[in-house]
Amino acid sequence: MQRLFSFRDLCFCVCLACCIFRSRCSTELQCCRHGVFVLCHVLQVSARLHRHCCSKLQAACFVSQPHSYSLIAGQQHRCFRTSYAAARPVLQFKLSDIGEGIMEVTVKEWYVKEGDKVSQFDSICEVQSDKASVTITSRYDGVIRKLYYDVDSIALVGKPLVDIETDGVKGPQEDVVETPAVSQEEHTHQEIKGLKTQATPAVRRLAMENNIKLSEVVGTGKDGRILKEDILNFIARQTGAILPPPKEKMTPPSVPTPAIPKPVFTGKDHTEPIKGFQKAMVKTMSAALKIPHFGYKDEVDLSQLVRLRSELKGLAESRGVKLSYMPFFIKAASLGLLHFPILNSSLDENCTNITYKAAHNIGLAMDTSQGLLVPNVKNVQMLSVFEIAVELNRLQTLGAAGQLGTADLTGGTFTVSNIGSIGGTYAKPVILPPEVAIGALGKIQVLPRFNHKGEVVKAHIMNVSWSADHRIIDGATMCRFSNLWRSYLENPASMVLDLK
What we know:
By secondary structure, this protein is of the alpha+beta class. The chain contains 13 helices and 18 strands.
């Protein structure tokens, strides 16, 4: 008996040394205890002596690792009654990275509760980020022991989502939960595997109904995704059934189209020199682009002017003159230039002097067979509306015949372009140097408008677009001139007061 005690003491010393130098965690300490337990049974030592050895081992471990005392004491009773191999590990199921840089999600719905049994690919919960909703599925077979979040709580990527007590299958080491032990410090740079959804919930349900493991099915979808057809083909291979081939799409027979011969183009390009009035236009427009243009647009109600012209048209024709609206437009412009002479001026090439023109030589842009020509009516400030109409008839006749002379085409101080005679409504007129202003008149349209009583009435509306040299003419001046010009046309009788 003494010999056995000596051998027992030797075993105790060996186990004590292992505990002091190698016992770093509760698992290794349990291994040392089990070693003592096995040796004691082999040597058929009494239970009293076995408890004596373990108490000494516990005291020795407390000396080397004081912080493990509560851990050892709390596990002593369980360790001697349950073997380590028979324990069911509890795994921490962590929320893995779901991609797109998402670091947190909101738990929208739990599909399980504590105590529920789950299998691989069973839905655990649904989470929602600011980009998408994702269904989280289980990677283990086991029992749900703990839910870490409530509904509408914020779950962090890489943090535990649920605890699963597995059926003897141990997951990754960092997922093991030591319930009574103090958890070790997690690694700061551990890799979080992305959660890859292999199949949609409908496909998973079909696989579960037929007792098929998705791991045994080869997916033919994008990135190996398992489709419904993959499950059906797998069932067919297992049962020997033959699936019907996919229906072929019936395409109607094509009707041959007769070949249409392509036409042969025989035209040739030709070149001609720029000359005459067109050459002068190139020179004038090139100089005009150097002028900073200021644009202003407005609309004019010509209802009263339309009635006045209708009354005077017959009288003018009796005198052999065609009376259009243009004589009224030109005369109203001349009356406005008397109040705003800066618009009837010119600027020298060095931009150092402004010359105010005494004569109102108002030009009229004409579309002729020779191109765009701008003859002008001389001294409009001295002419009546009827005299302006006579001069316009003369210029239009010469322009149509291509007989406009140099005197008619030079010396202009202000220009009006009647684009409305062709059909336009708005325009962006280009100033003709050395002039500093130009107006473009749109077509007259019959449109509904409100009168001073708030009633909808028929009105004859014309749009006008002005351009001015912004180097010497500001927007306010152009606006005031346009308002005065419009007042003469909207109330033609007012022109009588200013006629000379």
